[in-house]
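2024-03-11 09:14:02 INFO receiving multi-entity request
2024-03-11 09:14:02 INFO entity count = four
2024-03-11 09:14:03 INFO echoing inputs for audit
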Amino acid sequence: MTTQPVASERQRDAERTKAEILKVAQQEFARHGYAGARVDEIAERMRTTKRMIYYYFGSKERLYIAVLEKAYTEVRAMERTIDVEHLAPVEAIRTLAELTFDHHDLHRDFIKLVAIENVHQAEHIRKSEVLANLGTPVLDVISRILDAGQASGEFVTDADAIDVHMMISSFCFFRVANQHTFGALFGRDMAAPEHRDRLRRMVGEMVVAYLRGQA
Amino acid sequence: MTTQPVASERQRDAERTKAEILKVAQQEFARHGYAGARVDEIAERMRTTKRMIYYYFGSKERLYIAVLEKAYTEVRAMERTIDVEHLAPVEAIRTLAELTFDHHDLHRDFIKLVAIENVHQAEHIRKSEVLANLGTPVLDVISRILDAGQASGEFVTDADAIDVHMMISSFCFFRVANQHTFGALFGRDMAAPEHRDRLRRMVGEMVVAYLRGQA
DNA sequence: CAGCTAACTCACTAGTACGTACATTAGGAG
DNA sequence: CTCCTAATGTACGTACTAGTGAGTTAGCTG
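2024-03-11 09:21:47 INFO inference complete, emitting structure
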């Protein structure tokens, strides 16, 4: 048995090459949109060549779909680690909102990909079997919090889990996705630390106030 | 003096041609994004030719900026017609939220242009003098409602007009802008009438609950 | 009606962007 | 050590795409 070089030293390594393509492609698509992204540009920013992109992914569109699949899969995996069910309903939903906020704050590229995919009416997502069968763990969490809150009487508003998720997401998504036009037109950088912290508290208070209803 | 043909019958009419270019271009940019939009495609869908686009607008980018300017100007003009100040604070802010909701519902192309412009980090908006000096009338309206509500004691939360505007916009924007990925992943069409009506009430209740605070 | 210019048409180009044919090599299997 | 194949590199083709050069005409002005 000869000495095996460690993975990082191997000159030929399919997994490593594929992973690098996906990483660089994600940046490129997020920065320039689907049509604006350049396959040649992705290739130039890598150790490897454009030929490899086509060898592994076949086409620009399939590469883009692979990027979406990877991004969504990671996000869903992260969602599954959220644990707020040991908290009382009010604190649970507030914490969930704030974690969602943090999550959006940290995954700018993912937010952009979602925005881009919506420009294209989700046509690529619909082509992916992986994404079609990717559950949404966060909905179950919200459902249980809502049930607990209604049972204890703390939540008065009769809300649906998808709606509540949408309410939280919209706030967090908008702050990140629209920060540039918002900044240009209102002169306020929603991503700046001082605004970020206030808006983080705001999203939590917003959901709690909504669910508690008009006392 | 010879008989004047009416504007619509004139074969040569700069204003009419420019207006048609802008209208078709808005659709094309909204549908395919900045990079995905095709100047030739815009030309083909018109009475006139591609050469005219360059004659009047000079470049694809300047055409795109002109489209943004027109869209934003129209939206701001519409905002100025909003009149809720004869209402009591709670009803005023609720109505404003619902009108904002309707407004987003009606101007899908505009929403998409905003999303697209954010993908490009608002670089085109920043190049436009028109847009830099376009006020935001809605902020004054919100300010006055907040002042009235705080004076009367109905609003407890110490909120800032820009934040409240952001809260309302985010909800309305997200429902329209992200309807495709949301629909694909959660199996719910937020644009369908039954959901639309519920979400419309929801945005109003959300702001009111937030401003009234935890009683 | 003559002349002038803004409005318009047509044919074309230079460069770009996705994708591929073909040659080559690393490195594991036997 | 040899062979075989997955992995990789090079160079190129085809189609598209923004933008333009140069000529033409509608229709207003005097």
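2024-03-11 09:21:48 INFO post-check: The CA atoms of residues 17 and 47 of chain B lie 8 Å apart.
2024-03-11 09:21:48 INFO post-check: Residues 10-12, 38-40, 50-51, 54, 59-60 of chain B lie near DNA strand D (CB under 10 Å from a C1').
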